[in-house]
Amino acid sequence: MAEEEMSYSESIMAATNSLYRFPLIKINGIPLMCHIANNWNSISAFLPDPSDLLIATYPKAGTTWVQEIVDLLLHNGDAEVARRAPTPQRIPFLEIHSPAPIPAGLDLLEKMDPPRVIKTHLPIQLVPKGFWENKCKVIYVARNAKDNIVSYYHFDQMNKTQPEPGPWDGYIHKFMNGELPWGSWYNHVKDYWLEREKKNILYLFYEDLKENPRREVERIMHYLDLSLSDDVISRIVELTSFKSMKENPMANYSCIPEEIFDKSISLFMRKGVVGDWINHFSPAQNQLFDEDYKRQMKDVNIPFRTKI
């Protein structure tokens, strides 16, 4: 364990020497950070095992939360096993490639035996086709647009590898125009929603997880064909509360150096609430956003909630 932690720490510190705010390059119309785009052939050719599980989200939609829930479910709620390594080492980030503040996903996956749990922010059309051909299970987590953009804005300010977010008023327009890393939130949530039944995707909502975490943990458990005791489920709910995860160094990304994640600007795990958007949108911005949202989402009826 000590050797693993040492190599993980060393790899992160080595990467800091070549880090900067990565520019975006479009792959099939989707803006991705250059280190992802430049390694795209290898990423798109990745062939998962049928037993692999993919956790897909738009950035800052509850990814780490569901990663921790899944890891605990797969290890019968054993907190010590779930603390064996930081989240991005236990659950590789498929498309991330060196130099980056976390280990290259493909490198980690090559060293791991299936079944593996894999994270991605890729929109559905960029997910390697092997996931669908091998009928892998996929859990998708969606968060309402207003809270998602607020969380993403704070993250882009503190994460020195993401493009410079600029002022909040301009950031809103970038979000609406799909100009942020990983592209349009609107297309992202819609495309997974429309394919959820055909591709057997478990589609979760951040707001549902906040409102009734036990119910959603049980939904994930059943999707994974697991059967755990009520006591274990209760323990998992407690271990994956925002408070517990914020204090857990294996889940709160405190392993990332200050030079990369500037915690004086924002913590990786900032608030974890529903409705914080109301503290950021002016009335004029809210009206503009609502009008654009109605236009972009007119063709689907996804039951998002901006408060619970």
Describe this structure in words.
Strand 1 (24-27) and strand 2 form a beta hairpin. This protein is an alpha/beta fold. It is built from 16 helices and six strands. The strands form two sheets. A four-stranded parallel β-sheet has the order 4-3-5-6, sandwiched between helices. Strands 1-2 form a two-stranded antiparallel sheet. Helix 13 packs across helix 14 (230-239). The longest helix is centred in the first third of the chain and has 15 residues, at 2-16. The protein has a single domain (2-296), classed as Rossmann fold, CATH 3.40.50. The radius of gyration is 18 Å and the shape is globular.
The total number of structural domains is: 1
Topology, number of strands: 6
Stated plainly, the CATH topology is called: Rossmann fold
Major beta sheet summary: 4 strands, parallel
* Order of H and E elements: HEEHHEHHHHEHEHHHEHHHHH
The CATH architecture term is 3-Layer(aba) Sandwich
Distance between the termini: 41 Å
The low-confidence runs, each spanning 5 or more residues with pLDDT under 50, are 1-8, 11-17
